Amino acid sequence: MSRKPDRKPLHLNAFLMSTGHHEASWRLPESPAEANSDIEHYKNLARIAERGRLDSLFLADSPVLMGDPGRRPAAKLEPTVLLTALAGATEHIGLIATASTSYNEPYNLARRFASLDHISGGRAGWNIVTTAGADAARNFGLDDTPLHRDRYRRAAEFVEVSTKLWDSWADDAVIADKERGVHALAERVRRIEHTGEYFRVDGPLNVQRPPQGYPLLVQAGSSEDGKDFAARYAEAVFTAQQTLEEGIAFYKDVKQRAEAVGRNPDGIKILPGIVPVIGDTEAEAHSLDAELEELIVPEYAKRQLAQRLRIAPDDLDLDAQLPEDIPTEDEIEGAKSRYTLIVELARREKLTVRQLIGRLGGGRGHRTFAGTAEQVADTIEHWYDSGAADGFNIMPAVLPSGLEVFVDRVVPILQERGLFRTEYTARTLRGHYGLPRPANRLFETVDHSEGHFGIGLAEVR
Amino acid sequence: MSRKPDRKPLHLNAFLMSTGHHEASWRLPESPAEANSDIEHYKNLARIAERGRLDSLFLADSPVLMGDPGRRPAAKLEPTVLLTALAGATEHIGLIATASTSYNEPYNLARRFASLDHISGGRAGWNIVTTAGADAARNFGLDDTPLHRDRYRRAAEFVEVSTKLWDSWADDAVIADKERGVHALAERVRRIEHTGEYFRVDGPLNVQRPPQGYPLLVQAGSSEDGKDFAARYAEAVFTAQQTLEEGIAFYKDVKQRAEAVGRNPDGIKILPGIVPVIGDTEAEAHSLDAELEELIVPEYAKRQLAQRLRIAPDDLDLDAQLPEDIPTEDEIEGAKSRYTLIVELARREKLTVRQLIGRLGGGRGHRTFAGTAEQVADTIEHWYDSGAADGFNIMPAVLPSGLEVFVDRVVPILQERGLFRTEYTARTLRGHYGLPRPANRLFETVDHSEGHFGIGLAEVR
């Protein structure tokens, strides 16, 4: 591969998930039985990723028990809380928590992210999700999930309210003037008085403006609504892309949409997922992949696939291809683009249900790549140079071992090729991704006129 | 004072608040300017409290900017997040976070507390509050706060839902049977299918049962509704009591109410607040107290007092007593008992508004006690022996210095008198308070019949 030492470095995010992204990873002899609620396990993962100078850690989430608890570790510590614990175990790495705009209140969530950003010294990121599925809805007094488009409308307003709340304290609001007895300037803290379709929020927030201004805004939906949302709000996008061609098309599409709404396309980083299965030889890597595939319990996986396809498990025959009569993407509510990706993968490669289950076992639709460290570095470089990625969302099949081997063997190759940092040069998550700190929209100029909160300085002099 | 070496030890909780409970504490030369968002400041406080073998740390909270940001550090990091960070800086001490039942969803909040309990190894506590005030309501789409009684009804149902969610995984649900490929037993994880007046929640929770079963349940309301709620649900009660007589009456009242609903009165610990101002001599303590009082900005404090009394600031004359024409407790929505305490204090001692402001400056209605370490230990012992307290909520006027002097000088006296532990003997917050781990109400016996979640073990064999 050609070396271009002056090119921009790429970005790497470690997507953490209990014993690994492969659904059968927990069955390996070395996997800890209760990794999903063991803080020491997660601290270890965070330190490994930081040793590799990765940009960030990421936790997926949904406010519902996802899938069958028999099948794999299904319980998950709440991400803003878990990442706060990991902030204390690390110094540099970014901390990206998934949180739902459908099942939270902006005041509470904006405050937790602001708190995490303060506690971590500017390392918080928010993966904004709208949360599909009736099961989640039924944990919040609803019978079924709101419609896809409505969820995205709410998400957009949620982000608007959140950014206003983060802006409700000017960066210079706190003066702590002990002599005069004025802690914060009343005219530099103000109500937001937001009234919209979904929310009425007066503010101000009861946390000072976060070190990063806003946490890094991340998005992972790849449907049409999802891409429009990303183009407008996201600064990093996690996406599942099975082929280079699809990856290039997605990359172009999102960057163009961002430009169309007046944004700098460099301000939105595209990170496809990759499940690297790494061996000393290619054969060893494939053998590890096959070993994991054999550990999948087909009854569980078939049931999960049937749920995703909205058909009965009995309509799936393990040794036949997918039935013809399954819904179209338009008929699906939630995880729309992932649905299409899975169906197209099965049709394109004429996979039996059993084979499809094997292909989904590693990354649930994300691209699995088995090979040597060199080959993994090659595919990363190739996708990067081809304009399919600004970086990658690393999803080790097995944890911690898959992250260790990636950090110890793939990262040095990328560093040697001038593709990845050898030391952290920034202190914040935005800094790692080369993204600016947002200006405060409520305090662009000093405003002594109205809307301020509390007694003005003149009154206490 | 008489020594009774075989008596039960008392309990001590450190109530943390930025630069201290005295509203003017931040104006002292040594107070850090941004203590309220400085995680290192809080870690230092947590370690001091743990050095003193205190039972727990506690953070008050409300989802609104409380009071004037000019007056004192008003911003607050969100407690479940902040205490998670403190869990990593400590090993034994309990971590009690305030969270509102009026402005949260049970699924989300139960999950965060379960997560904190897992991360801290069983040290989480929840101070259950209903959150008064129109300002908070207006951060959540409401025009005004729900009525006092309605808020308590919702709180009761919220606690019921939360405990069911914590019970939705049997303690032995996870078997991690790698051979058969069964991570959790389907019949030991179940939906709660709660349908009530305020909430419909299907469950199960997506976090395994917390190490403590439930976090310690704490309550701090002292109104009639508040005492009834405490009697039914609380295991520890924080309360403001100005005089020993009132303290004894409150203690008896709550214990009797607990007995009346069939609870063991020992299972509910009463902890009055105390703001200790400690000097080498009594004169030095009073001088520190006077120094702090002089630093109060009367304009801010008068405005705050007027708000509490629901009158205009101009109706208060700093050098006169409270006007006659103020509301009765019945007309007040929220913080009802504190309202009465303040009015009675002012009337009983015939205080001018300026004097009342000084008396409230330290603990906002909690009892301030200025004296030597020996005198502070004496008053603690006296209240304890008189049946007014099972322990105390320690509210240092200045932080960290007030906590340091309490830990280094008062705690050793209490230990010498056999009143306080010299080492931690338990690993959990419940253990420190001598309270049992609650049994699981959904899995008292193994139930293979119905309501379980996922595929049964037989199906995957």
UniProtKB/TrEMBL annotation, chains A, B:
Q: Which InterPro entries match?
A: Diverse_substr_monoxygenases (IPR051260), Luciferase-like_dom (IPR011251), Luciferase-like_sf (IPR036661), NTA_MOA (IPR016215)
This protein's source sits in the domain of life called Bacteria
Q: List, for all copies, the residue spans of the domain called Luciferase-like.
A: 33-388
Q: Which GO terms describe its molecular function?
A: oxidoreductase activity
- Gene3D superfamilies in the record, alphabetically? Luciferase-like domain
Enzyme Commission number, as recorded = 1.-.-.-
Q: Which UniProt keywords apply?
A: Flavoprotein, FMN, Monooxygenase, Oxidoreductase
Give the PANTHER family listed for this entry. Answer: ALKANESULFONATE MONOOXYGENASE-RELATED, C2H2 FINGER DOMAIN TRANSCRIPTION FACTOR (EUROFUNG)-RELATED
Q: Which family does it belong to?
A: Belongs to the NtaA/SnaA/DszA monooxygenase family.
Q: What name appears for this protein in its UniProt entry? A: LLM class flavin-dependent oxidoreductase
Species of the source: Streptomyces sp. 900116325
